[in-house]
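Worked example (supplementary).
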Amino acid sequence: MPVINVNPTRMELTNLKRRLVMARRGHRLLKDKRDELMRQFLELVRENKKLRARVESTVKNANAHMAIARSLMQGEVLDVALLNPKQHMVLDIETKNVMSVMVPKFNVKFGSLNQNDIYSYGYAFTSGDLDTAVKGFYDMIADMLRLAEVEKSCQLMAAEIEKTRRRVNALEHVMIPQYEQTIRFITMKLDESERSATTRLMKIKDKMLEQAHHYAD
Amino acid sequence: MYRVAAIGDRDSIYGYSAVGIEIFPTEESQEAGRLIRRLSENGYAVIFITEQLAAALQTELDAYRDDTIPIVVPIPGLSGNTGIGMKNVSKSVERAVGSDIISEDY
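After joint prediction of all chains, the assembly is encoded as:
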């Protein structure tokens, strides 16, 4: 690791020592943050995978019923049946702070509280499979929204973990060694100049004594 | 207050309208890309999109990855499960950990 290009002075040395302490503290904190983020992330990802598998299989089921309904009914009748839905849905989104990552939290509100309002058609001209399909969609809506929530949280946390990991690595492998090396370099340099000053003084003292007492004679 | 939308070919998403999700049928990926942009600017927070379209719009969808809103979620359409949704989850893991470590659990 190359030494930072600084003047080898006592002032720089104190500055660097202070920065080294700071870097160490930051490194420790960020490492803790990374570990905790990672733990929560892995938990969330497991849930994400499970939810996704479940949603994908239920979507498949509902779609199958839909396909049967479509084949049993006239296209126009089916289109008209779902043309004017009675139910509608709005979301309230709060954000929750998880280790400085803002993850979304949904609050679902349905326009109509009557559960049967998902069937926006009369039963006379539609196939029962349509009812099953619509019921299937309704049953998994909570799962789907939870999936959206979890998946977004995962993505946001992944980004944050990546950032934090980079910082930890930069501190650990670049900044801290660099500071240590530079501090070593300055200490050496200062010690060296101190020694050279001492020897110079000794030499001068010898010369002055020599001049005063004329030992050589 | 945010709303929920579904984008995809008509047959795949038609059923969602019954449960309160607003549907925007399209089969064209460019059109879908424009729709996503428009919807995200107009108060739609969650956008479900069929995997088929999501596959064609990967770069556009990646641009939304780091934003809290909109949340674009790929779901399988009538044409079946292409595995894109799961691949996206693995991508998050890969980004965070460096390699996909939990994929073989399932």
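Two points are worth noting when inspecting this output. The radius of gyration of chain A is 37 Å. Chain A touches chain B through 59 residues (CB under 8 Å).
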